[in-house]
Specification:
Number of strands: 3
Number of helices: 3
Strand order of the largest sheet: 1-2-3
Distance between the termini: 19 Å
Radius of gyration: 12 Å
Order of helices and strands: EHEHEH
Structural class: alpha/beta
Helix content: 40-55%
């Protein structure tokens, strides 16, 4: 983020574990949880991601929604 001079609130972290979601949140990033990875949806919900997606094509939709909220 520093290299590209990006504000964390303008970036997103995508992960499939609670730890990845928590780490993204601690860094000040928006977070997207993917349910087809290591953790099931119930564990991911506990990490409180901004979005939970069920397929790769939903990632772009979630990013677009975040972009609309930011701008």
């Amino acid at each position: 983020l520093r290299y590209w001079k990006l504000n964390p609130s303008n970036a997103v972290s995508i992960g499939d574990t609670q730890d990845e979601i928590r780490t993204g949140k601690l860094a000040g990033l928006h977070t997207i949880a993917c349910v087809w990875g290591w953790n099931d949806i119930n564990l991911l919900k506990k990490a409180k991601p901004d979005f939970i997606v069920n397929s790769p094509n939903q990632i772009l939709k979630a990013v677009n929604q975040l972009n609309n909220k930011i701008h």
